[in-house]
Amino acid sequence: MTVTRIEIADAVEDAFDAPPASKEDLLAWATANSARVEVLETLGRLPDTSFRSLRELWAHLSGVPVGD
Fold this sequence. Notes:
Elements: H1 5-12, E1 21-22, H2 23-32, H3 37-44, E2 50-51, H4 54-60
Antiparallel strand pairs: 1-2
Helix pairs in contact: 2-3
């Protein structure tokens, strides 16, 4: 099953309640929200930087489809 932006957003959106969120923050939120391994792998490919919003995140995940 393909990872989608909707799935990623569901796993990490709360990380942006107090931005910025680092790559490690996003991985921790996704893990806490029981994200699939494929979601964690996708997030693991992000650069080691901070993100202020999901919109900033999408710039680094342009190949991930929105949904099915």
